[in-house]
Sequence to fold (463 residues):
Amino acid sequence: MLSSRTQPIAAIATAPGRGAVGIVRVSGAAIAPVIQALCGRALKPREATYLTFLAADGGTIDQGLAIHFPAPHSYTGEEVLELQAHGGPVVLQLLLARCLEAGAGLGLRVAEPGEFTQRAFLNDKIDLAQAEAIADLIDASTEAAARSASRSMAGEFSREIHGLRDALVHLRMLVEATLDFPEEEIDFLQKADATGQLQRLQQLHAGVMQRARQGALLREGIKAVIAGQPNAGKSSLLNALAGAELAIVTAVAGTTRDVVSQTIQIEGVPLHVIDTAGLRESEDQVEKIGIERAWGQIENADVVLFLHDLTRADATDYIAADAQVARLLGQKLPQGVPVIDVWNKVDAAAAAPEPAVAGHGHIRLSAKTGEGLDALRAKLLEVAGWQAGAEGVYTARERHVQALRRVHEHLALAAAHLAAKAQSLDLLAEELRLAQNALSEITGEFTSDDLLGVIFTKFCIGK
Fold:
C-alpha cells in the first residue's frame, strides 16, 4: 500500500541527471506556507512567474519559474506548486529539501512512486486506464506505442469501456425487472429484444477486444526466441534482424554460450529477439549452462523460431538431431506457443529439397544475404495477431485483456441462460453482473487497494 493519501507530498518531477530545466512539484491542501517560503509572495493562479527561489536564510537557491495551480484545477486535483529551475541534481535537491523544511508543519513528505498520478485517480481527474496510459506513454519504445498510449490517456479506451458498461447496465435492468415482477404477464425481455441487445453487446465487445489486443502488442511486444542446433545460423539471424553485429559469428559450433537479445520494431510492434546457445548434448560445463538458459528462454517465449540448416538438410545425423530438438520443443513449450520453422542458408543450398515441417508454417531465408527476412517479419506479425493499418488502436495492458476475456466468457454464459428463458434468469442476472464487474476493473470503478498499489508503485518518482 502507498502512504497516507491526505498528507501533502513533494518530489523532483524530472528524470535524474543534468539538464537545462528541472521541476520540483508539491501537491496537497493548504500549501500556501510552502509557496510563501520558496517564492516570497503569493502567486497568481496558473500564471508562470519568474522569481528567485529563497533559502531558509533568505539567500538565493536559484532563479526560475513558479506556477501555482489551485484545487481542483490541477493534475492531482489538489493545490499544486511547480518550481521550474535549472536542471542540476544539486540545485533540485536543494529546492526539494527547502520545500520539505517549509512544509514540515503541514506534514509535507517525499512522494512515493506514482503518487501524484494516484491522487489524480483518487480525485476523479482520470480513471485507472488513463493513469496506466500515462506510464505507458513515458515508457513507449516505438512511435506507434506512443500514439496508442496518447489515445488511451485522452480517454478513448475508457469511453469504449463505458459504452460497454452502459449497455450491460441497461440489459441488467431489464432482467432485474423481470425477476422483480414475475407475476406480470408482459415478458419484459422479449418485448425489449433482450436477445438482440445481448448479441449487439457481444459484437461491440469483440471490437474492443481486438483493439485492446493490438494495443497490448504495441506495449508489450513479442518475445521471439531463436532456437536450433549449433551452427544453424542463429546468431547471424539475430544480427540480420537487428541490422547490427550484436552476436559473435564463427564457423565453430557452439560459439554462442549465453543469451544475447535485442529489441527491434516491425511496423511499430516491438520485437524482442533472443539468440540462444545451440541445442545439443554437451560435456562442456560452460556450454551446458548456456543450453539450460536457452531452454529457460524458450519456455517463456511468445514465438519460437526453430532454425534449420539447409546445407545439412539431407544428412542423417542432422535430421535425427533436429527431430530430437523438435520433440523437446513439443514437451517443454506451453500449449499454444507458435513455432515457425526457419530454413537458413538458401544462398548456399538453393537446390535443397523442400522439407516437410510442422508448426505455423516455414520460411526459407538467408541470414547472410537478407533474402526472405521480410517474409519472416510478416510471419511474426501474423502469428502474433497483428493487423496492419488497424484504426483507433489504444494502449492496453495484459490485465485489461484478461478482464475483457472474462467479460467474453460471462456474456457467452449469459447468452446460454437467456436462451433457456425463465428457468435461468437468476443465472443470467449473475453473469451480467460479473461481466460488469470485470469491465469496471479496467477503469478502476470496481477494484482493490492491492491492485492500486501494484500499478502506481511501478511509476517513476515525481509522477
Remarks:
- The radius of gyration is 29 Å.
